[in-house]
Amino acid sequence: MIINLHVNGIKKSFDINPDEYLVEVLRRYGYLSVKKACDTGSCGVCTVLVDDSPVLSCSYYAVRANNKHITTVEGISGEDRSLGEFLVDEGVDQCGYCSPGLILTVIAMKKELENPTKESIVEYLTGNLCRCTGYVGQLRAIMRYMGVSE
Amino acid sequence: MKDKFQSVGQNLSKVDGMGLVTGKPLYTDDLAPKDCLVIKILRSPHAFARIKGINTEKAEKLVGVEVVFTHENVPKHLYTRAGQSYPEPSVYDKYILDEYVRYVGDEVAIVAAQSEETALKALKLIKVEYEVYEPVLDMMKAQGSKSQIHFRERCFLNMDKGFEPEKNISAVYNFSVGEDVDEVLENCHVVVKERYKTQAQAHTMMETYRAFSYIDQYGTLVIVSSTQIPFHVRRDVALSLGISAGKVRVIKPRIGGGFGGKQTVQVEFYPALVTYKTGKPSKIVYDRKETYQATTSRHAMALDVTLGSDLDGNIKAIDMNIISDTGAYGEHAATVLGAAGYKSLPLYNRVDGARFTGKAVYTNHIPGGAFRGYGVTQGTFALESAVNELAAKLNMDPLVLREKNMIRKGESSEIFNLTTVGVGSDPIPMDSCELKYCIDKGKELIDWGNKYPRKVISPTKVRGVGMSIAMQGSGIPGIDTASATIKLSDGGTFTLLTGAADIGTGADTILKQIAAEGLGVSYDIITVFSADTELTPFDVGAYASGTTYFSGNAVKMAALDLREKILAEGARMFEINNEDVLFDGLEISSKDGNKTISLIDFSNKLIYKRPHIQLMGTGSYTTTDIAPPFVAGFAEVEVDLETGKVDLLNFVEVIDCGTVINPKLARIQAEGGIVHGIGMALFEEVKETKKGKLITNTMMQYKIPCRMDINNIVVDFAESYDKTGPYGAKSIGEVVTNPAPPAIVDAVFNATGIRIRELPITPEKLKMALINK
Ligand code: FES
Ligand code: FES
Questions:
Q1: Which end of chain A lies in a sparser environment, N or C, as judged by fewer CB atoms within 10 Å?
Q2: Which of B66, B68, B46 is nearest to B57 (CA)?
Q3: What is the ipTM of this complex?
């Protein structure tokens, strides 16, 4: 079946199977920043933004995204791009596999949390697993990015 | 002169960092050809069986199926999947496909089809008839079991490590130093004798196992793989197919984590076989279930430790006996087992006698394999737990007990001589051991004086602190090899070619720093390329904490070699002696200042004018030097007495890894390694049913630490310099993982009086113990 998605601001049609998840469709069409790590909605690695909200694309049917706006890391722009630099600055881009999902979640979080604190950041991001960094370095970078002090 | 540019010790960002965070297609599956065949594997539902009959007719007829392999039509060459230097000390006990299946998940058939859907459909059409055997599912009973898992005539040994398949023994490791341990123990006033158990742990790297392959323009079989060991993959795949290694090329792109899992050749055999037989590109991507079910995990172990001391806490004897569960195959069986002893026992080098005995046994579990720490994590847990128990028995602060007994700077242990290839019998002094500093600093950072042993917070909440020390190696002396090449190109730029495998660790970045330091140039004019078995020089790969030390030393040699060549060419150009030439990183000049040429002009002249050459420096490194890193780790926990839940409030680790080449990256490496140890202490456990079927086969069931589980982690570095390391550096990757399990166990003991000797410390386990107290 054919669906229409606005991916990173560009409207395109996608030929999909009705039972296909969004992650598969996006990867098939070349949005390779979108990664999958668990297939069970447990790790956050596959996160993309659907109409600005973080969504686990491994457990979100592509058909549900019809006519919606999708953002992948390839499409982030403006000030949001600097988040990657904060991560690299802190050295938390280890294997990097969790980075796209984390970055998109942080971008959504920044819009959503009005008075972010260390605790509310950790809570918001708890579904984004990382096996390399031990989290604390990521937290340092994200707090700096969000302008939150200890 | 060379001080103009300093690279070692700088917080350089990762050379690939921006590529990673902007989501560039850099990983294996991002690079696979779109139309390649997709491979799926039919797996055994039985823990132990023989395939009596297998019918693939229907599967082969399915439209879109390219080829189906069973044990009847694959090349039959024995190999080991363990990625180790040749000749490997692991038993060659594996075929690509065998008529025996030895654990639930073992490979039965390989299907390659035009789509994943078709391949999965084809798997369902294969009919298999099994003769099912009684499996061995308890490692403690493996030796006496009636079921024999491997057969002598169906295995091959490069060297005898005690392989005794009739008793299901894959390997034996024994050594002892000093006086007879039993006699010494008899005369000890205080003795601790306990059994500790460590669980199988799953790597859970975010990028699961995957590889693809194709035939290139030269007829070479190319394998692009998410691996830690490209050069070993090349050799092993060639062996499995019975072809020359010269026909195989392995490329390692960016890797989404490995932690030892990718030091085993897990998946590369399959696309290699399919492409070799069909001539068509093919790929395999394990899903998370397969990754848990059908690869390797940390060897589960039962460790008996006996410690004896006098009344003042001078440890006189250590006896360690281990049974290690190597599961269905013997990858890394002997070496993980041995490392558990010989990289933990030297911590206490003043003993009158130390003895290590161990067996790695075959069972019908998921195979054991390399996992960050490589046995030393298990050995450290048992040894350090026993030392903490001794402290409790003596009523002595565990820090004081460590100070009395631990190895110090300048001292040695005979165990190093016994267990290292080619070192001879002269004592090997630890001239960069800063354990004392690590303990003192850690004590201050955790505020031990105020917190030890416990603080009651409320009627239901108690806090406690605990600690551990640990060591590891820096590569495998006498066995491993690393090499590097650096070329000076026109335009005054350098390229570092290294076979070292950056798997997210930042190896490419720190090796570039070492190259810049050796050349005496800015790191901005160096680019790095790794790792491709056709293009980069040999390196064993990322394991045994060897990259900084081995690959770093090779890069340093290459850099110094090239620097010499630059000076020599400068001398020729200026028609003066080599000693009269200077190179400050920007210009080559004569000492008297009369002649000067910029590096850019110099390199252009070399290539385009005269003498029409490209300068290249190379280095190959091996050593018999031993340069263990040391750490001290401190845990503070809060235990909920009502639920048995343990919250880790603080973890402090002070690290002696020699010179820290890149403090920023080293810190993250340490924090990540600590969390692996925390996971092992508190959450992670591979669990199977009574029939040997995996229960923890998703990330919902297998719990790695999440963000909420990790509170405060403090990492600090001792000032240290090892004269054998590149600019003083030792390793860091594994040692950082070792202290968390024993330190956390002791913190829980200090809080509650309950000693957990079997990991992980789950709330159920602790609550039951509290009830039975
Ligand atoms: S891959 Fe979607 S949550 Fe893990
Ligand atoms: S950096 Fe590797 S999983 Fe997060």
A1: C
A2: B68
A3: 0.98
